[in-house]
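Name: Cupin domain-containing protein
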Amino acid sequence: MDGALSLHRGHLPPDADGPDDGEVHVDLASTAAFRVEHISSGRVSTPVEFLQLGDEWVVVLEGSAILEIDEERVELGPGDWVLVPGSRPHRLLRVEPGTRWLAVHGTTPPT
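Structure predicted for Cupin domain-containing protein:
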C-alpha cells in the first residue's frame, strides 16, 4: 500500500511531578500532517503566551490549568480538551504542578 503509515507503538511517560518550573515536552508521534506530544507542567510564575501557526488540540490527562484564549478564561481538568485554531495567541495563566497533557499540533497551513 503506497503512502501507508507503518505501525508504531509506544507508552506514555510515567506519572511525574513535572519540572520545578516550566514544562517538559516529549514528542510521541509525527507525520507530515500532525505531531503528538506529551507535556508535563511545573510551576508557572508568570503567564506564558503561545502562538502556533497550525491548529492545536490539547487535553488534560491529570491536574488542572487555566488558559486564556481571545480574552476568555478556559478552565481545564482531567479529560477536558480545547481546540485552539492556528495563529490564535493563547496564554497559560495557571497550572497545577504535575499537570499532564497530550497535544496534537496540525501542520502549518500552506503559504
